[in-house]
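The following block was generated as part of the benchmark described in Methods. Ligand: NAP.
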Amino acid sequence: MAGKILSGKKVADSILEHAKKEVQVLKKKGITPKLVVMQVGDDPASTIYVNKKHKTCVEIGIDSEIKKFGTEIKYTDFLVEIGNLNKDKKVHGILVQAPLPEHLSHKMVYETIDVQKDVDGFHPCNHGKNLLGKDGLQPATPKGIMRLLEETGIKIEGKTAVVIGRSNIVGKPIALMLINAGATTTVCNSKTKNLGNITKEADILISAVGKANLVKKNMVKKGAIVIDVGTNKNKKGKLCGDVDFENVKEIAGWITPVPGGVGPMTIASLIENTIKACKVLECAN
Ligand code: NAP
């Protein structure tokens, strides 16, 4: 029997519906949450993501501003721009869209964002809170993945989890969340030997790599929950994940599609984080 499809789109829609109501309540108190997305350069994929975020904010009733900068902007000038947004009382969320040009892809960029406005959850302080299992602004994609796992109704505690990928924005933070939720967690990377032997042990398998068809049916345990974070283009130029979806869905218990899986959850989590940041900054809980 084929695995159940874990639709991020469906869950994200219900989160956004709730978010819309929360924004209406805030607006009645004279407060409008505001998100500013900073984009450097005009990478086409980044522009698509930035526009998607903007469109969702508008639908929810959140004020949204996209600040675009040329790739020639100096590092110090960029930090000044972040500093100005930190000081702006009307702004509750600041997001710097990746990737950044080489001279800006410096960790001080994320460290400069006010921790309370860091709606992407990339500030070292928010990463630290995630590590400690403390309340803070959690990285959007891992937060969305945890919500999807919750949706299956399967208890995480005591399960074996395997995360493929160790990036600061997905692999490491989701591994920490799984550890905090009581899963026995292994993190794999590009140097991992016998990847398939490790993934085959997983009750929960998360792939965050960026390689189409990396995860094949013979690497997956029967009944496993398979979460595909990867966004790739297949040979026909169509969007696909890391997982060989058609074959793996035959053996998985639950599986996320690409598109319509983790992607919509990332945006929904960003919206939730923006509302949360707004409430904290305005003391409007
Ligand atoms: P990243 O920074 O490039 O990290 C990729 C990770 O995969 C690295 O840790 C790398 O290992 C590991 N890796 C590469 N080849 C591997 C292999 N053959 N076997 C095992 N591990 C391997 O990427 P990222 O930012 O985490 O993003 C990962 C993917 O998720 C990308 O496709 C990205 O577009 C997608 N993504 C999607 C969303 C969404 O909302 N849907 C959000 C964020 C990211 P090393 O560390 O050893 O190099």
